Amino acid sequence: MTRPEQDTAGRPRAPVIQRLLGDPRVAQARLGKRIGRLPYFTRVESATAPITRMEGRDILNFGSNNYLGLANDPRVIAAAQEASARWGAGVTGSRLLNGNLALHEELEDALRRFYGRTGAMVFSTGYGANLGLMSSLLGRNDRAWVDEEMHASVLDGVWLARANMKRFGHNDPEHLLAQAKDDTASGLCVVEGVYSMRGDRAPLRRFLEVCRETRLALVVDEAHGLGTVGARGLGTVEEDGVVQDTDFITITFSKSLGSCGGAIIGDKDQIEALRVLTRPFLFTAANTPASVAAALSALRILQEDPGLVAQLKERVRSLREALAARGLRPIPSDGPIVSVEVGADFDTLQAWRLLWNRGIYANPVIHPAVPAGHGLLRLSVMRTHEEQMVRTVADACADVFSDLQLSQEGRGKVAS
């Protein structure tokens, strides 16, 4: 007989558990659920496509990172199915011990060739790739110079290394130079090719010059740049001509490649050193065969047809023009993330809810992901969006800004 479900509410709770449950973020999440305004952990009930089944409804999806639409490509799905049939559902261990499939090495070889570098190292997640790189490269007395809008995976990796984290202004290489030029400690600089919240791109050529002057290693996270920027889709490193000059490039498979996993790309000797030193790599179960095969298939499709990148860029241009025609001013960028500043967190959540009520899914970005008072509506463009879908979401955004009396310049409430 199955025992009835029960929790530990009637038992004394240890102080650490009391602290866990008393965290203000937990209280906010509970409140959001009660009033129906929690825009996170939305239940998805179909494959991620322009029209996605969510919470029992067919929703126009502008909140997905399936930029090239390859997560739904029959060739990618078939590759995942064939890999599962051959290799099994999982590898049941780390690559160090029993999970280093020929398939993993094949993907590493394809990635290094794609970027024209001599080494690549595949991880179970993109988060793990950044966590592993930071914690392996940095020591207790090193400096990690990090853009103020950097992804949490990099921040956590720096904390794991117990290095000294130094923040510089967003996309501001001159601020980095002013702080780092007289600092003699060893270290590195980390930037994103395309930033995940605002969608803007880093000026990589200038960052490279500053890093050379200050003897810092340069790491570029191309999670959102892979498949979306550059003629061949290598990312901002390609667009700015620094593919060979950047010390390390990190990527994820969960966006343009439509799978799950990540990688570090760089020089062979450096990658081989990381392979035996990186704890989040050595002691984590390897990627499932299906996820590796899917990423490899998607990468080959991108290599064979770089025109997919141009098609995505055309959709992005179309959305930006449609928003501008309706008086909205998205943050300048040519990447796949089109963000419009709303302002206060409450207004941002209200805007998200109004879009949801109209059958449109977007991502509300609030503090601490962005500075307080600078909440964003983030629209992620897929190559497979149709022109009518672009016009529909632009019309809806304009109506929402009007209904909430928001400034169309993205500066919060219209002054009364």
Explain this structure.
- Helices cover 41% and strands 15% of the residues.
- It folds into 2 domains: 128 residues, Aspartate Aminotransferase, domain 1 (Alpha-Beta Complex); 233 residues, Aspartate Aminotransferase, domain 2.
- The longest helix is centred in the C-terminal third of the chain and has 19 residues.
- The strands form 3 sheets. It has a 7-stranded mixed beta sheet with strand order 3-9-8-7-6-4-5, with helices on both faces.
- It has 15 helices and 13 strands.
- Helix 3 runs antiparallel to helix 12, helix 4 runs parallel beside helix 12 and helix 13 packs parallel to helix 15.
- It is of the alpha/beta class.
- Strand 6, helix 8 and strand 7 form a beta-alpha-beta unit.
Q: Could you state the CATH homologous superfamily of the largest domain?
A: Type I PLP-dependent aspartate aminotransferase-like (Major domain)
CATH domain class name of the largest domain: Alpha Beta
Number of discrete helical segments: 15
Number of domains: 2
**Helix/sheet category:** alpha/beta
Strand coverage percent? 15-25%
**Which geometry do the CA atoms define?**
globular
Oligomer: single chain
| Portion of residues within helices | 40-55%
Identify the strand order in the major beta sheet.
Answer: 3-9-8-7-6-4-5
Query: How are helices and strands ordered from N to C?
Result: HHEEHHEHEHEHEHEHEEHHHHEHEEEH
Summarize the structure.
With 416 residues, this protein is of the alpha/beta class. It is 41% helix and 15% strand.
What is the secondary structure topology, with strand pairs?
Layout: H1 15-22, H2 24-35, E1 51-54, E2 57-61, H3 74-87, H4 102-115, E3 119-123, H5 126-137, E4 143-147, H6 152-161, E5 164-168, H7 173-180, E6 187-192, H8 204-214, E7 217-221, H9 236-239, E8 248-252, E9 262-266, H10 268-277, H11 279-282, H12 289-304, H13 307-325, E10 337-343, H14 345-357, E11 360-361, E12 363-365, E13 375-380, H15 387-403
Helix pairs in contact: 3-12, 4-12, 5-6, 7-8, 13-15
